[in-house]
UniProtKB/TrEMBL annotation:
SUPFAM superfamilies in the cross-refs: HemD-like (SSF69618)
Gene3D superfamilies assigned: 3.40.50.10090
Family matches, as InterPro entries: 4pyrrol_syn_uPrphyn_synt_sf, 4pyrrol_synth_uPrphyn_synth, UROS/Hem4
GO molecular-function terms, A-Z: uroporphyrinogen-III synthase activity
Pfam hit, one: HEM4
Residues passing through the membrane, by range: none
Organism: Geodia barretti
Stated name of the protein: Uroporphyrinogen-III synthase
Coiled-coil parts of chain: none
Residues covered by the Tetrapyrrole biosynthesis uroporphyrinogen III synthase domain: 9-131
GO-annotated biological processes: uroporphyrinogen III biosynthetic process
Extent of the signal sequence: none
Length: 142
């Protein structure tokens, strides 16, 4: 993008997931009039009951795998678990009994930054490939 004449250009970027600091920094350095367009927001749910039920099911050994399909899911899950006093238990579940699947490298990077090891990541970051990769993981384990 450094070849583009961006001085004074109007640039609108659709925001995906969490904030991106590199692109805005670059565009502002090029003196572009930069704006973000947010189509949806990745906030914490008001009703945390389903997430806490999921954690309870993992604790009881009823969940074999947990698939993460976006980067913001990682801190959101950890925040909900911490608020309920279940972060240590969640981390224990995700470090062995429950296989951790990530849709792709961006999500995997966030999981690893949070100290969570990824067991499954598909070759191509798409939902269908994630499902197939999880199936392959369990077929190979048996």
């Amino acid at each position: 993008m450094s070849e583009l004449a961006l001085d004074g250009a109007e640039v609108v970027v659709q925001r995906y997931g969490g904030p991106d600091s590199q692109l805005p920094t670059f565009l502002r350095a090029q003196r572009a009039n930069y704006r973000e367009l947010t189509l949806y927001d990745w906030g914490l749910p008001e009703d945390r009951g389903p997430v806490l039920s999921l954690i309870n099911e993992m604790e009881q050994g009823h969940i074999d795998a947990l698939a993460f399909t976006s980067r913001p899911q990682v801190p959101n899950l950890l925040t909900i678990a911490a608020e309920a006093g279940k972060e240590d238990s969640l981390r224990h579940c995700l470090s062995g009994p429950v296989a951790v699947a990530s849709v792709g490298p961006v999500c995997t990077r966030k999981l690893e930054e949070c100290g969570i090891t990824v067991n499954v990541e598909p070759e191509h970051p798409h939902m269908g490939n994630l499902v197939l990769a999880v199936a392959d993981y369990f077929n190979d384990a048996s």
